[in-house]
């Protein structure tokens, strides 16, 4: 089974860079019609999905490393 269009859009947004504070949150609201809180909930679940890893291994592995580093800081 393949990722849905929303999941692919979330990964695509994570590949982008944003120019300043608030730009990413604005893109989340405008492009995906999600609140930032819901976006990050979906993103976190997506990082555990093997389909996401198969679709975009570079982005998913990078985000997994960041998530793991933040968890280790706690």
Describe this entry's structure for a reader.
The chain is mainly alpha-helical and 74 residues long. 76% of the residues lie in helices and 0% in strands. The protein contains five helices and no strands. The mean pLDDT is 95.
Task: Walk me through the topology.
Blueprint: H1 5-15, H2 23-32, H3 36-47, H4 50-55, H5 57-73
Helix pairs in contact: 1-2
Cα(first) to Cα(last) distance is 35 Å
Largest sheet properties: none
**Strand segment count:** 0
Rg, rounded, reads 12 Å
Please, what is the average pLDDT?
95
SSE order in H/E notation?
Answer: HHHHH
Number of H- or I-type helical stretches: 5
Low-confidence stretches: none
* Helix amount: over 70%
Oligomer type: single chain
Estimate the strand proportion: under 5%
Task: Note the main attributes of this structure.
74 residues, mainly alpha, 5 helices
Question: How would you concisely characterize the structure shown here?
Answer:
This protein has 74 residues and is an all-alpha fold.
